[in-house]
Amino acid sequence: MSSISKNSLETSLQELECHFTWALLKEDVDLAELEETIGDQIEFLVKPNITSYNLLSYVCHLKNSNEEALRSLQKAEEEIKKNYPDEIARRSLVTWGNYAWIYYHMERYKEAQTYLNKVENSCKKLSSTAQWKIQLPEIYAEQGWALLKFGGKYYMRAKNCFENALKDEPNNPEFNSGYAIAMYRLEDFSHRQCEDVSPSIEPLKRAVQLNPKDTSVMALLALKLQDLNQADEGERYIEAAMQKTPDLPYLLRYAAKFYRRKGEADKALKILKKAIAVTPKSAFLHHQLGLCYREKLFQLKKTTRYPPQEQVEELIRLSIFHFKIAIDQKTKFFSAHMDLANMYAEGKRYEKAEETFRKALQINILVYDDKQEYYYHYGNFQRFHMKLESEAIRYYTEGLKIKKDSYARNKCRKALNQLLKQRIQGGLGDATDFATLGLIHNLDGEKHEAIECYEKAVALCPDNEEYLSVLCELQLSISS
């Protein structure tokens, strides 16, 4: 094929609506774990698996398995013929787009052109103005589902896709479920970052009303009600969902989370063991199991003055075992890394804790509140396990210096404040302690208190240019 026609082919491919043009970046996910997740969904969810097979084809391509990708697309075609025999062209646009791209990457340009032509012909039949793309609600929804799979930074785009799908079909149960899930995840994400976002409770209620068979959305509604201190109503939804689909792993994982948060760790464990028997490689389930064993450990320590050492060690071992599987399965699972590092510290395996903290910070998709969370936990590790208060102060301060509000930043501020005041009141405060306390006051807009602290820092360390400079700036800002 000449370079000109190859270039024109690529230009046309860029116009398609499919996974290859939706900016889904492979560095944002763990491909093996995503492939596993999609495989589980195909196996356990009783609905047309077209979107799952289309997404799986893209994941296989990202793993350099183009032959496998083509097999997934063949399965998508079979599903389309079975479920939409009267709408084959309309329902095949994303599948054909993926075919065209995969053949292009395999340098089978003739086949790529064939699928491009199929998309073009179908678009012309469906709309007089469209050439390569047509804004169909089911394509917006398919893009939304794909975006949800690629992680937090894609959630806002996913929400927008489902909103677009709902403009044409406001009562479509699947689109409402997708929108509710996107809103639920966005809300969770935004709360961590102390941002306001419109609540997910109403979209969840509407999705459950329109799609009473979707028990995983019912379970999310239960968790949201639990967040809003309406746990009794939440539990009624969990119980109803468990009656409908007692073996569905996607329901069981959320039901277990509900009971763990309610303080019923044993009940949660029983549900999780049932789910893990069905999907043994689920990183989510292993993480939840680790959290349950950790909860039992904390309860034991809280309720027993001298807890039996054997019992303590066994709960730490089980917790570590499951957290470790979670991060082996999903290498970018940040909160599981934090939980594992803290549990190693709890078991006095300090080198392992250090190594896990280090790995966590190397994850390439961390957002600012993840980093603040890291500095908070690593600061605690230095303070309580290594007994190095000066190191703890250094890391809490790093978390505070990321000047965006989040719960983790507030935890850094609170820990730092408490530790510094403790040191100063105990007569151990040095210039660095006073300067750091001054920094906290300054960040909180308390300039007079900040000046007082920096004056004490300068008195103890009169040649420190940084302290003198900050003090001078603060005094000028007050006088002006």
Please, could you describe this protein's structure?
- 75% of the residues lie in helices and 0% in strands.
- With 480 residues, it is an all-alpha fold.
- Helix 3 packs antiparallel against helix 4 (66-83), helix 8 (137-149) runs antiparallel to helix 9 and helix 12 (215-227) packs antiparallel against helix 13.
- The longest helix is centred in the middle third of the chain and has 21 residues, at 283-303.
- It is globular, with a radius of gyration of 27 Å.
- The N and C termini lie far apart (71 Å).
- The model has no long low-confidence stretch (mean pLDDT 95).
How much strand? under 5%
Report the radius of gyration as a whole number of Å.
Answer: 27 Å
The 3D shape can be described as globular
What's the β-strand tally? Answer: 0
Q: Find the structural class using helix and strand composition.
A: mainly alpha
Percent of residues in helices: over 70%
Largest sheet: none
Quick structural gist:
With 480 residues, the chain is an all-alpha fold. It has helices spanning 3-14, 31-44, 50-62, 66-83, 88-91, 93-105, 109-126, 137-149, 155-168, 173-192, 201-210, 215-227, 231-244, 249-261, 265-278, 283-303, 309-329, 334-346, 350-361, 368-385, 389-401, 407-425, 431-443, 447-460, 465-479.
